[in-house]
Amino acid sequence: MKFENFIWDFDGTLFNTYPATLDAFEITLKDFGVFEYSRDEIYDDTRNTITFALENLIKKYDLNRIFVDKFWENANKVHPKYNVPFENAIICCKKIKDNNLNNFIITHRDKRSTHEILRYYGVFDLFKEIITEENGFENKPNPESFLYVIDKYDLILSKTLCIGDRELDIKAGKNSNIKTCFMNFDNSDNLLEADFVFNSFNEFINKFI
Predict the structure, then answer these.
(1) With the C-alpha atoms ordered 191, 197, 201, 202, is the resulting torsion angle positive or negative?
(2) What gap in Å lies between CA 172 and CA 122, rounded to an integer?
(3) CA within 20 to 30 Å of 157's CA: 33, 39, 41, 47, which one?
(4) Using the 8-state DSSP alphabet, how is residue 11 labeled?
């Protein structure tokens, strides 16, 4: 295996949390009297960041700021069973650990829900460290959280891979001077100039494990 250290994004990379997030958006919009909207447009905005999607909806439908709090209230009610791992994602991370290599998570998600989902699926112990919102680092694509992990564990840059599904993940990896992998589950034409691109975890496993 070429790489020894794998720095994973969480939402949309290891776990398909987008459907549950979109459901929370829809519930919240209806609570605010908005019944006509494009789920596809919200999805596209969410793939930038959830904050970006929230701001666009507030502007588009002239909503007050309470909309943000209500959205997070609804999103935080989601049971972990609705945030499912991508096919073979868990197998992939298990193989990495079984080979005495390292999995890390760097996410903008809060610590409570991140740990809750990982423990629900019995995979919490597969990760050497899990960086969440509570760590207080600047959000990706700022490399601050990546540099912290690299420095703390004395990771060799050439043997460390960043894996994500959004542009900000790839940029964060590049800003940290490590190789990058784009998980292109949507078969997008925009490959984000990542070093590696895969459409499934099967492809990832076949290449690296």
Answers:
(1) positive
(2) 28
(3) 47
(4) B
